[in-house]
Amino acid sequence: MNIKIVADSCCDLNDELENKMNIKVVPLTIDIDDKIYRDDENLDTKNLLSDMKLSKNSPKTACPSPDEFKNAYKGEEDVFVVTLSSALSGSHNSAVLAKNLTLEEVSNKFIHVFDSLSASVGETLVSMKIFDLAKKGYDNINIVEKVEEYIKEMKTFFVLESLDNLIKAGRISNLKGKLASLLSIVPIMKSTNEGEIDMLEKVRGPKKAFKRLIEVVGENGEKLEDKILGIAHCNCLDKALKFKEEVMKLYNFKDIIIVDTHGISTVYANEGGIIIAF
């Protein structure tokens, strides 16, 4: 299996997955009041959360440069790349440009860039699918076909307990945000077929939102026994474990994985956020 998987740093991993798949992660950066965080293994997400709360401004993110992706492609292996949805970030374009630059120098190298149409644990599941197919001996063309099909069928949902970043970014007005907080409104969000973020529904209170998210799995899932459920959490492991426990009572997933959100996903989800994909 002479392949390399490259992903941007919105691909949230735990130690087991990182060691198993040996993914090369290319970091994005986060800017909070001119303080730059590099979303790599040295990032402390608790400090990031603290700085986000203290700031009056919305965090800004920047995708990796083509050169950073190009460096990650080096080596003898065939390369499969997984990026954030192109509707959310320039990371995909940067990865594609790096591919084109690499092929100008090494024309016979295999590189394929997947637009995950998702983020966070959605990227993780795509990476796992690539690894699994390669391990089973599928050739590169078949891997591309099967993973593209997998991406089209994958569902991503997330629940936000904090609206701070949406208010700061102007996505919702300060008045509406305060009113939503006052009324304990919790939005359940989804990724569209085009990889954009859309509102699924609003729920009154975190407990109802948690219960509703479990129901959403059943309403949107088919052949769950053949699928893996990915759960990413932002500094709320107990909630993620509880979600897994409740899901296992109702649905028969092939496997369930739990990961912490790293820097970019922490910016999206904020404290207490849960992201699921399957």
From TrEMBL:
One GO molecular-function entry: lipid binding
Protein name (database record): Putative DegV domain-containing protein
PROSITE patterns associated with the record: DEGV
InterPro entries: DegV, DegV_C, DegV_domain_contain
Pfam families per the UniProt record, alphabetical: DegV
Keyword set includes Transcription regulation: no
Keywords recorded for this protein, A-Z: Lipid-binding
Organism expressing this protein natively: Gottschalkia purinilytica (Clostridium purinilyticum)
Matches recorded under NCBIfam families: DegV (TIGR00762)
Transmembrane intervals: none
